[in-house]
Amino acid sequence: MKTIFFYLILLLSFSISFAQKKPTFSVVGNATNKESLLKSKRLDISKIKIENISNKPIYLVWETVYNTFPKEWDCSMCQHGACQIGIPKGSSFSKLNADQQGFIAIHVIPTNKMGNGIVKFKIYDKANPSYSKILTFEVDVL
């Protein structure tokens, strides 16, 4: 009897942990954007879309986990609901309703400085931080 009880508890624990990891969002298209531009031009927008695939509102959070953009570049980024100067350490989206799409986007003005850089954002649902995606922007300025 103790063995059956033990297996039932184990099965229940597994079911609960599996249910918590069910994704509530997905990346629309590719999770990596590669951009190339001349040093005299500007990257007006490079955008990666995210879609709420759950049946209820979600609140997405993001963190910058990697950034090698040259300091000379004038950069900014936008997320669903707000824009910031530079590439901040993190923030959160406005509420995404069921079947609604949001985005993370970057803007780069290289100020005549050639080079390349990569910025990566980790994104996750505030209510389910165990499931995350990495969004990557690669920029080459020629």
Tell me about this structure.
The chain is mostly beta strands and 142 residues long. The protein has one helix and ten strands, in the order αββββββββββ. The strands form two sheets. It has a five-stranded antiparallel beta sheet, with no helix packed on it. It has a five-stranded mixed beta sheet with strand order 2-10-9-4-7, with no helix packed on it. A hairpin with a 2-residue loop joins β9 and β10. The radius of gyration is 19 Å and the shape is elongated.
The value of Rg in angstroms is 19 Å
What is the SS-derived class?
Answer: mainly beta
Average of pLDDT: 89
Proportion of beta-strand residues: over 45%
Shape field = elongated
Can you count the helices? Answer: 1
Which sequence of SSEs, written as H and E, runs from N to C? Answer: HEEEEEEEEEE
- What is the β-strand count? 10
Which percent range fits the helix content? 10-25%
Query: Low-confidence parts lasting 5 or more residues at pLDDT below 50?
Result: 15-19
Head-to-tail CA distance between termini:
71 Å
Strand order of the largest sheet: 1-3-8-5-6
Major pleated sheet: 5 strands, antiparallel
